[in-house]
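pasting for ref. prot 1 ->
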Amino acid sequence: MLYGKLDLVFYDEDLKKVSIWDIKTSTRGWGKWDKEDKIKMAQMVLYKKYFAEQYNIPVEEIDCKYFIVKRKIPKNPKYPASASRIQYYVPSSGKTTMNRVTRDLHAFIDDCFKDDTYNMKEYTKTPSDKACKWCPFNDKPELCDKKATN
């Protein structure tokens, strides 16, 4: 069972289309790295897939997009669009992407759970400023060896 909370779901009666929006906040908006983050993009693809299955709607009749709210905007922007607090991003969510994301999700579940029991296998990630920026153990040297590797 997969549990998720959708921020906004719209239905356009004229076009017979469902639109799923996920609201994100960002300091200055999304750049190239955010848009290429496969895990971040997988969220909307899975919302689209399972929403279609749950409500028996053809997946082709569902669109999805990220609604990004910027916390800061430049005082003298170089481009007018960067002066807006709102940014939209439509992730790739076609058949190929949906198949890849679904395969990755199932591989993750199979790796983490064996016979309905949580697999206690230890996962490690190479510490780095980018990887550890939001980690709750970042400032707890007794729980994280980031300081030892820098």
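and prot 2 ->
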Amino acid sequence: MNTVKTDFRTVLHADGPDPARVEALQLYGRLVGSWEAEITAHGADGSGHEASGEIHFGWVLQGRAIQDVWMIPRLAERNTAPAFPIAGHWYGTTLRIYDPTMEAWRIYWIDPATNVFRQQIGRAKGADIVQEGTTDTGAHTRWSFTRITPDSFHWLGEGKPPGATDWRLVTEVRAKRRQS
């Protein structure tokens, strides 16, 4: 009998993208790795608050999806950092799954630390990645990865309440790849 190690970590994580979908998976695949993040939360009153965090992306589900973990503050500062105004302390995960039937990504953000749950659709828009969705209250969300290089990206979290015509920048993240 052939025995294969089948603990949770082993069956969740993958070494790389599914060979049948390599090209399509590179939209987010280029983000796989660990990142240092500087976050700015923007209040509706024009105030701004800054904090540090970290982000980790990895291949999961036999390389058919990418999962990430976003943390504010960094894990090492989790128990000592003061509460982060507006955005709160994040400790959430995103599951990003490419759907070849729609040639787009299904995005599921889950953050039990702030009790925020979002579903979005992600696509390339020029050199950027733009994810859009609608909350339970009917507000629109748009999360964008911009200025993407092998070692950095700028992420924008925008919202638009029901009936509003303009998007409002709520959170932005400036990320730099962690050097090993």
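The CA atoms of residues 145 and 155 lie 5 Å apart.
Residues 26-177 form a domain with the Lipocalin fold (CATH 2.40.128.20).
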